[in-house]
Amino acid sequence: MSVVVLGMSHHTSPVELRERFAFAENKIPDALKSLRESGIADEAVILSTCNRVEIYVATQLEPAKAFSELKQFLLMAREDACPTITNELYSFAEPQSLQHLFKVACGLDSMVLGETEILGQLKDAYELAHKNNSTGARLNKIFQRAFNVAKHVRTETNIQRGSVSVASVAVELAEKIFDSLNGRDVLVIGAGDTSEKVARALFSRGAKSIVVASRSFERAEILANEFNGRAVRFDDWANEFEKIDIAISSTSAPHHILDRDKLAPMMKHRKDRPLLLIDIAVPRDIDPAVNFLENVYLYNIDDLQAIADDHLQQRKEEIVRCERIIREKVESLLNVRNESLNLRPAFDKID
Q: Which 3 state secondary structure label does DSSP give 177?
């Protein structure tokens, strides 16, 4: 039984495509069950974030057959008409599949090189699969090793030097638009982990006030109180648009929560004040058409790449060290497995 991975990420596809393949968290258990019952996978983990959708499986199938079956599964899992995809998908078999998993865990495959949020997301994806009896000895060992490698890379290299999260990059974008966050009023829509990190970064850089709107008002209150801010009911967040300067949205809504028709009348009350909208949700929360409104500046998750690139050069020197650690850990893992099966190692060196 070998481990293969099929997926798409910000490296291979735009947000317009990724959002069509994203898995809502409550849909993942059924998808994992379907993967196992179909015979494609003995074990499976689905990772679905704003920047990537990946399926990791331990399977008895030959890699080429597994890739074909997984592609069809991914296409059929969509509720809308299946789009035509060509080079947007990537696939890896061992040992490259393990190297890829370790790189993802370490933040080496992220939009913001070295960011740490992906590790938490990967742990959540694994725990969800484990809870639903979709992992076994093979994936359990590999994912636990990936988490250990990520910890090793964080402590032994400087890959996290500079801004290392989507939240911090979003705040930097706000500072470039307004020069300073001092005195700015901010609305955070959605009180999840990403929104919390954004709020914390905004508060630390001088935001005047932070208003939090969430479908869970209790959660919104907890987050708002942490920053001496204010919580509002989710249905009332639009009422804040007359006063705010920045809105950062990161909900799990399956459709746009803000479109041009809804925003246009709000802008009439702002007296030509600019409005910065940062949409870090996938699927996107904000209709791209709002960008055509006067004094509205909309940026989505892919737009953050430009700022992330500013920090890339200072980390490039660490990539070689990180990849060497990963190669050594993958080689060790596979050698131990082969020895336990009394098999000759499948390779002497990973390029």
A: helix
Amino acid residing at 237: W
Q: What is the helix (H) or strand (E) element at residue 128, kind and residue range?
A: helix 117-131
Query: Residue 56 carries which DSSP code?
Result: E
Q: Which of 50, 82, 106, 322 is catalytic?
A: 50
Helix spans in 22-57 (H): 28-37
Q: What are 256's strand-pairing partners?
A: none
Q: Has this prediction a pTM greater than 0.90?
A: no
**Amino acid letter, 204:** S
Structure tokens at 60: 């008895």
Of 90, 8, 11, nearest to 308 (Cα)? 11
Verify whether residue 322 is a known catalytic residue.
no
Q: pLDDT tens across 247-269, in order?
A: 999 898 999 999 999 999 999 88
Q: Is 250 exposed, middle or buried (0-12, 13-18, 19+ CB in 10 A)?
A: buried
Give yes or no for a contact between 297 and 274, defined as CB atoms under 8 angstroms apart. Answer: yes
R_g of the chain computed on alpha carbons: 22
Q: Which H or E element spans position 18? A: helix 15-21
Between CA 315 and CA 305 the distance in angstroms is: 15
Distance CA 279, CA 173 (A): 12
Enter the tokens of residue 117: 């949020």
Q: What is the DSSP letter of 184?
A: -
Q: Residues 128-134: what's their mean pLDDT? A: 97
Whole-number Å distance between alpha carbons of 123 and 344: 32
AA letter at 4:
V
